Every structure is written in C-alpha cells, then in structure tokens.
User: Fold these one by one.
Assistant:
Number 1:
Amino acid sequence: METIVLAVEPRNCSKNEAKALRNEGKVPAVVYHKGEENMHIAVNAIALDKLVHAPESHIINLEFPDGNSRRSLLKDVQFDPVSDSVIHADFQFFAAGEVLEMEVPVTFTGKGPGIVAGGKMQALLHSLTIKGSPSNMPQQISIDTSHMELGDTMHIGEIPEEVTGGKFEFTGEPDTPIVSIAVPKKEAEETEEEAPEEPESE
C-alpha cells in the first residue's frame, strides 16, 4: 500500500478553536492509539480533501512541525451536511507488525453471461473492511464478476480466496451482498405477467 505524507500541527481544544481553524483552511482532527492519550491535531483542508476522495486507501505518515513523523490510517471523516466539506477527521497510529482493520475501496471487473444477456451490474458495496498487517493491506480490492449470470448476487463469503492471497481477511458478515446482476426491467415485467395467478379462496 502506498504511503502519503500529510503535514499536521498540534492544536488546543478550546470552544471556538474548530471554527477558527476552518476559517484558516484547516480541519481539526484526532489521532488515537491503544495505550496512548488521544492527540489533537490540525490538517490542511485541501490536502485532507484529496486524501479522503482518493480512489485508493493509503498509509499516512503524519509529519509534525518538529520533524517527527508517525504512520497512521484514516479511520473516520465527518462532513458538513450542507457544503459536504470535511469538518473533522480521526486517524489511528499503528506500529510495525500490528494487526489492523480498515476500509478499502472495491472495484468490479469482467463481463459475464448476465451482462452479455442485457443485465446491469449493481455494486451494493463500494468498500470492504479487511483485517491484516499494514504491509499486506491492498490499496483497493478488485473482484472478477465474469462468471455471474442474470439475477446472481455475490456475498462477502463467496469472494474467491485468490482475492486475499492469504494476506488479509474480510471482517463483514459472510451473507452480506456486495454485487448483483440485475435482470433487465422489461424482462422482469414480462416474467411477472407470465406468472400464474393465485386461485381465489372460496
């Protein structure tokens, strides 16, 4: 997984600080790690926005004004309900060899029989939570749908083992659907019309 450097600075937690930071083009954030006190930091809003909307996940080197840096993951982001801009972020420090959980974007490839027959692929999840060591975390997960027929749905528990390569595991419920091949609307309507009517009860 690619590493990105993100300059940060310590901040106080006064009542009006968050608003003042945002007026300066910065976003308040918190960094946590098990066994350590939470650290309150400020991040450049533009740099954070690019990171949040990147198509891949990254390891983030948080670089402090004194020259020290620590590896982290972006764990949570809060958006303004009106402007949709990032207003707060949570990061998590991690150590070498530590087992982590993180969300990774998922993409779907392949043109299976269902698509050839006129079906439409519907991505039901756009990211998956995985567990593993930092060195084994992929930037994104690619899942092949070339075997899927009309009406098929793939669940987390049905993801082929070669996708993980034994390097990480999925933490979601096995029966959670992730992608389906929808039957064309016209064909679905015709199937409904052809279905036999239920006999009326006397």
Note: The helical segments are 17-23, 45-52, 113-116, 185-194.
Number 2:
Amino acid sequence: MTPATTNARRTAREWTLFVVMGIGLALTVAVTVYPLANRGLLADHVRAGYPSYHEGEIATAVTWYLAILAVLGGLGVLSWLGTIWATWVRKGWAPWLATVILAVAVCVVLAGLTVKDTSGDVGLAPAVGWLQVLPCLAGLSAVVLLWGGRR
C-alpha cells in the first residue's frame, strides 16, 4: 500500500469503525479494572463456593483470579491497539486479524461463563464473566464493519 493510499481521506464508515474500536478498547479497560476495584465480588464468590476456606485461602484465590483477568485484559488491550493500527494504515489483513481475535475472545469469555471449578459452581463470578461479553459485542460490530467495507 502506498503512502498516498494510506493517507487518503477517511470515509464515514471508517470513522464509525474507529469509534466502535475505541469503545471496545474502553470497555476492555473497564472490565479489566472493575474486578480489581471490586475484589469483594470475587471474594464473595469464592467464599460461597468454598465455605470452609479461611480468609488467607480466599485472598490467594482472589489474587489468582485478578492476575489471570489482568493478563487477559492486557492481551485484550494489545489486541485492540493492534487492530486499530492495522485498520488505520489500511492493512488488507486487518479484517482477518480482528476475526481471529474475536474468535479467541469469545472462546475465553465462554470458558469464563461456563467452566465449573471443584465446588461445582462456575469458577468466575457471574457478574464479572458477563461483563466480559461487552468488549466482544464491540468486537463483533468492528468485524462486521471491517468485512462490510471490503471491495
């Protein structure tokens, strides 16, 4: 792609796409920060599933959940930034990148919503799991816009 093509005027569809991707990025940051700011939500979930756990064990479990969610959130942020960049410079493979990332994200979210731990309950607090769906909805919108704009 030549610099002239890359710097060509943006269409309204492209600007809409960038807004959608910006919203997806913001949602990813928000759903990553939310459990960090509300540790009690995860602690209550662990406490309900494992009533015999003492506070130290609950704190350890919550710390692991938060670490995993932070890593996944960080990967999500990097994925959004990479997709935004690829779209901005009009890389032909941007729709493929977005589609693969969306597929992986949906699998991760479905795992968070459905995988049960040894207590028999889902491992991730349902409120946190369902919040993870929001960036995927923005991702789905972005993928539709990316593929819809191809010639």
Note: Residues 55-88 form the longest helix (34 residues).
